[in-house]
Amino acid sequence: MNLKRFAAPAVIAMTAALALSSCAANEGGSGEPAASESTLSGNLVGAGASSQDSAQQAWIAGFQTANPDVTIDYDPSGSGAGRDTFLSGASDYAGSDRAFNDEEIAAGGFEKCAPDTSVVELPLYISPIAVIFNLEGVDTLNLDAATIAGIFAGTITNWNDPAIAATNEGVELPDQAITPVHRSDDSGTTENFTEYLGAAAPDVWTYEADGVWPFEGGEGAQGTSGVVDAVTNGTGTIGYADASRAGDLGTVAVQVGDEFVEYSPEAAAAIVDASPFVEGRDEHDLAIELDRTSEEAGVYPIVLVSYLIACQEYAEPENVELVKAYLSYMASAEGQDVAAESAGSAPISDSLREQVTAAIDSIQ
Amino acid sequence: MTTTITPPETRGPAAAPVSNSLTAGKLPNGASWMVLGGSVLVSAGLFGVIAFSGAEFNWVGTFVVAALVYVVTITLLSRIVEGSRRATDRFVTALVTGAFLLAMIPLISLSITVVTFGLNRFDAEFFSYSMRNVTGEGGGALHAIVGTVLMTGTAALISIPIGLMTSIYLVEYGRGRLARGITFLVDVMTGIPSIVAGLFAYALFAIFWGPGTRTGIAGAVALAVLMIPVVVRSSEEMLRLVPVELREAAYALGVPKWLTIVKVVLPTSIAGITTGIMLAIARVIGETAPLLIAAGFTNSMNYDMTEGRMQSLPVFVYTQYANQGNPPEAYLDRAWAAALTLILIVMVLNLVARLVARFFAPKYGR
Amino acid sequence: MTTAAAPIRAKQRPGDRVFSKSAVFAGSMILVTLAAVATFLIVQSIPALFADGEDASILDSNFWAYVGPLVFGTIWAAALALLIALPISIGIALFISHYAPRRLASVLGYVVDLLAAVPSVVFGLWGIGVLAPAVQPLYSWLVDNLGWFPLFAGPVSGTGRTILTAALVLAVMIIPIITAISREVFLQTPVLHEEAALALGATRWEMIRTAVLPFGRPGIISAAVLGLGRALGETMAVAMVLSATGAVTFQLLTSVNPSTIAANIALSFPEAYGINVNVLIATGLILFIVTFAVNAIARWIVARRAEFSGAN
């Protein structure tokens, strides 16, 4: 009789046992013989930005397939948490939507690295941010930074506003209210977008760059998917999202210099090349001071650059080879293409790759 | 139930026409159905005319207008023929039925949505693959299913003994301040928001394993915090239903109290208790927020409760929706398929609970 | 209290002692757990309570300015949901208990319970994909025609993801809870009371009004409170559906809406680090206190009513 009391847990335990005995068909790895000549083995732990999570998953998948004895874990705990984890030595590398700033570099204390050595920061994940809108009969709009900022700040409230019409001759703009959509969660996308608005239209956009939308206005939606859904399902909506998710929505060509640039992987990579490195850093610290106001031809200024951060010199030598091999894979043309395919990022240019490769080679 | 006998009209011609609601006229039996049919026709005709002039036929509008027309017509008709008391009765009947039909709308809409989208990826690969090394299409939710089973199972293992013993204490032993306090606190615990339980588990395990730790056991603890009060409440109800006479008979035979509980009270109420436990499991298995915080999410299979993040079905639905990659349809399909799986699991648990209750229920009580 | 107090002291056996001790132990575990929840939340919250914008990046000035609008949003959304759900739930409960044919009743009850079985993420997906686009035209109409009414003031949201939509989703989620309890209570109405009312010539509604509703009132109140508690703490559905901007406003149909504590935690926690985590846990503590207070008040009301209701 008493046994009946344990019926429920027993059912669960049995189900669990069944599940335990059946491994996921795509895991386990012991089945296929390793075709590669790889001699690498070990365990790498990374943590950081969730923006590059899909890219990391693709990279990890590619790298683990080529090196079956390697396991890499990337914990998408957020940029800030990723930097903290790396600082405390709990991870081998970090992913972060911003580089360490000068004070943090000066403070040092990277537990995983050899004493008094600094870090290598590599801009390996470049993601264009598209300004997307849903307006019947309009596929693309030319807008300058001040107009975009006006729309998102709530000072331009109707699609037939003269400021929009001025740069869009021949486009029939309806008399319809604008619903600007922004991310309601804390995100690197918002931080980069607001940074662009602040840099390119400082008169209109007076808020500081921040991962959280800085004022109460417009419509909030959760995550990239939420923004895309809100823009798609709404009428007269405009928002910003990873370019890979723009789909069939209308996109804004942004004014750079005298021309209007649609987002494209090349244009997004171009802004990184057109921007200077942060001054006063070590030779291989490739932190970039994005020049949002660049007027060079063919650059698309609204991008999110996410860094891979590793030690210049590791305190323990055990994982150095693995870190270098993994970073090299991510920087390689193949790695960048894999990320472009699965995460819609923009592959880095060859000139940047040379500097990155040099930096990776210098890791000890 | 409400048959009122209308006395035959045998008043003399001198009698003044008395308005008596008991003896007033009565609408014919099928009247309400006829009025309903008429309302639908009128409404459909109205929207048909609108649709004829170019607009799309508005189904929602049709039903809303039909319902309004019906309520107004039946009330007015009844008021004229049957008097105000019956009119009110018919009005309320229409409202009450309407409330029920209104609640069916989201249920039907939801079921249709989940089933249509969920079936896209409801295939063998979905139940045999994890998401490790999967980008874009393909992949499955086996790791999430295993995670859900492990975490919910562990939560059940923690909360069933505690919950059951607490309810035994409350019913069989509890006296005085401690019992009253526990009853009150169980009530309070029922009201703990699920996300607070998640934060608690996260904070608790952050102390032992350092900040940022997310493990399966933390998720299980969060679920257990949510589950214990439900188990206590339902078991307590069931134990109280056991007749005192059974206990007294056992005591009279000299059976010790603890044996009475184990051999008499528990077996009598075991069906109800099992039902309660099943329903409690069904309640926590769909929790998202606490698991997102306490157990995190991962793409790989993880059997180790104490090490590393663990995926679960609700969190899988959420992450597939929130972090869509390329192509997004593949991610959405997986999210809906997982949602369908989850609902099916919960439905089966509910159904089993009801069957257990029906077949093993004692022959008295409700 | 159905056990008979044994007038004669029974002999204490070791088995008895072990069993009663373990029962007491389990009961105490409840105390310990709840105390642990409270303690951990408080300990983790203390750094946040005294933090300012310097320490935690998500704070503008201090903690209270941050949590204020969230508390407002939490209560406002839950109250709206309860306002929508309560009459409908009572209607459904009455329909199942007193209107539907006896045979159908239990099936219908199960059907409504099915709504409770749907996980909140699924409600979130449904709210975004189906409900919000469906109600948006209605919102436009309301703003155009009833915009003078403060609650319906424009400009209308272009997506329909307003606090009213979130409240609708919450209402759908709490309807099965309120219905289930009210139904149970209605079914327990003494049959003699009902039959007496009918015998006196009452119509069905008059019978319900005079016999069923007075008897069920404490049950309805406690059901409503349970529903309110669920609505206060509901996280994912709100986080996914609501266009939250953190404003304090009563307007129902604009895209500027207050956020709720639970949704805000879910939105901000994944990227939170350092003292921000403590701030979010502290908002969780506030939510805990709010639900605790709501529950306590409701129990008190029910307990007071029960003394006077007399029907039993």
From TrEMBL, chain A:
Domain annotation PBP: ranges: 34-334
Listed GO CC annotations: ATP-binding cassette (ABC) transporter complex
Record-linked CDD domains: PBP2_PstS
Range of residues in the leader sequence: 1-24
GO biological process: phosphate ion transmembrane transport
Family: Belongs to the PstS family.
Protein name (database record): Phosphate-binding protein
Record organism: Agromyces bracchium
Automatic annotation (TrEMBL), chain B:
Membrane-topology annotation of the record: Multi-pass membrane protein
Coiled coil start-end: none
UniProt cross-references to InterPro entries, sorted A to Z: MetI-like, MetI-like_sf, Phosphate_PstA, Phosphate_transprt_permease
One Pfam family from the record: BPD_transp_1
Entry's Gene Ontology molecular function annotations: phosphate transmembrane transporter activity
Gene3D superfamilies: MetI-like (1.10.3720.10)
Keyword Transmembrane helix among UniProt keywords: yes
GO annotation terms (biological process): phosphate ion transmembrane transport
Keyword Methyltransferase: no
Keywords: Cell membrane, Membrane, Phosphate transport, Transmembrane, Transmembrane helix, Transport
Subcellular location field: Cell membrane
Gene Ontology CC, one term: plasma membrane
Cross-referenced CDD domains: TM_PBP2
PROSITE patterns on file: ABC_TM1 (PS50928)
Main subcellular localisation: membrane
NCBIfam families documented for this protein: 3a0107s02c (TIGR00974)
Function: Part of the binding-protein-dependent transport system for phosphate; probably responsible for the translocation of the substrate across the membrane.
Protein name (database record): Phosphate transport system permease protein PstA
Native species: Agromyces bracchium
Lineage, highest ranks first: Bacteria, Bacillati, Actinomycetota, Actinomycetes, Micrococcales
Gene from which the chain derives: pstA
From TrEMBL, chain C:
Membrane spanning stretches: 23-43, 63-96, 108-132, 163-182, 235-253, 273-298
Keywords, alphabetical: Cell membrane, Membrane, Phosphate transport, Transmembrane, Transmembrane helix, Transport
Domain annotation ABC transmembrane type-1: ranges: 71-298
Protein's UniProt keywords contain ATP-binding: no
Membrane topology, as annotated: Multi-pass membrane protein
One GO CC annotation: plasma membrane
Cross-referenced Pfam families: BPD_transp_1
InterPro entries documented for this protein: MetI-like, MetI-like_sf, Phosphate_PstC, Phosphate_Transport_Permease
Entry-linked CDD domains: TM_PBP2
Gene Ontology biological process terms, A to Z: phosphate ion transport
Compartment list: Cell membrane
GO terms of molecular function: phosphate transmembrane transporter activity
Function: Part of the binding-protein-dependent transport system for phosphate; probably responsible for the translocation of the substrate across the membrane.
UniProt family annotation: Belongs to the binding-protein-dependent transport system permease family. CysTW subfamily.
Protein's name in the database: Phosphate transport system permease protein
Species of origin: Agromyces bracchium
